[in-house]
Design a protein that fits this description.
Layout: E1 13-16, H1 22-33, E2 37-40, H2 46-54, E3 60-62, H3 70-84, E4 89-92, H4 107-135, E5 138-143, H5 156-175, E6 181-188, H6 194-207, H7 211-219, H8 231-241, E7 253-256
Parallel strand pairs: 1-2, 1-4, 2-3, 4-5, 5-6, 6-7
Helix pairs in contact: 1-8, 3-4, 4-5, 6-7
Length: about 260
């Protein structure tokens, strides 16, 4: 039940939600490169992503849990334990977005965002923490956002959910403080994902500007570096949070935002 690599996470198992694209895929890839077996979750061609992880020398599987349904989240954790023997690393990454002013925000959109972006994090931790405590080691990494620390117009549900993730992270960190389990949050700013790249290309075409100028325009005043964070950078930070060097980092929010929160 162990990986065939000799990385720092060899023999460990990581569950990464929303891991078939973007940030989640970047994190899963980084953890696999460090030696962790991977349980993927998300949409798309599951076999393709399993093959990608296995090409890195680890074991991999996929579970299609709907993160808005608590029973399916719990089943996903149980499946990981059944397949790999344990859940050593849990990365709560799955999320959705919708932008509208509060008075026009559809109630069903609010409910969906809270369910997937916040409640699923609680349900996954609730299911995974007992096995981590039993084994005396674990890492929970909650992917929050700069919007877990500050707000933006039109993002009431997302901001509320991500603030909730940061608070939940702190509670879990206190509850596990005298164990070998750590719980932390990563708070990215704008991240370069395929979806965002499409926005850059469209903006460059529409305004007849270079891709570089389109990036600066899209980032605007939010991200002073005028550079996107990459999924790979977030993945590398997640690997660090799994290391012994991070064993006393507990309940922290790690900003990786090009200076967004420094303003």
């Amino acid at each position: 039940m162990t990986s065939t690599t000799s990385g720092t996470l060899a023999g460990k198992t990581a569950v990464v939600t929303g891991s078939t694209s973007g940030i989640g895929l970047g994190i899963a890839t980084a953890l696999a490169k460090a030696g962790a077996n991977i349980l993927l979750n998300g949409f798309g061609d599951a076999q393709r992503y399993i093959a990608h992880m296995e090409s890195l020398g680890v074991r991999a599987a996929h579970h299609g849990a709907d993160m808005s349904k608590p029973a399916e989240v719990e089943a996903m954790i149980a499946f990981a334990i059944e397949q790999f023997g344990a859940v050593d690393v849990l990365v709560n990454n799955a999320g959705i977005q919708y932008v509208e002013t509060i008075e026009k925000f559809p109630a069903e959109r609010w409910d969906a965002i809270i369910a997937i972006n916040l409640s699923a994090t609680f349900h996954a931790m609730r299911a995974a923490l007992p096995t981590m405590r039993q084994r005396g080691w674990g890492r929970v990494i909650n992917i929050a956002s700069v919007h877990g620390l500050v707000a933006s117009v039109g993002k009431s549900a997302y901001v509320a959910a991500k603030h909730g993730v940061v608070g939940l992270t702190k509670v879990a960190a206190l509850e596990t403080a005298r164990s070998g389990v750590t719980v932390n949050a990563i708070c990215p700013g704008w991240v370069l994902t395929p979806l965002v790249q499409e926005q850059i290309d469209a903006l460059a075409t529409r305004d007849s500007v270079s891709p570089e100028a389109a990036v600066v325009k899209l980032l605007g005043e939010k991200q002073p570096s005028a550079q996107f964070v990459t999924p790979q950078q977030i993945g590398d930070l997640a690997v660090f949070l799994c290391s012994d060097a991070a064993s006393e980092m507990r309940g922290a929010e790690f900003k990786i935002d090009g200076g967004w929160i420094a303003q």
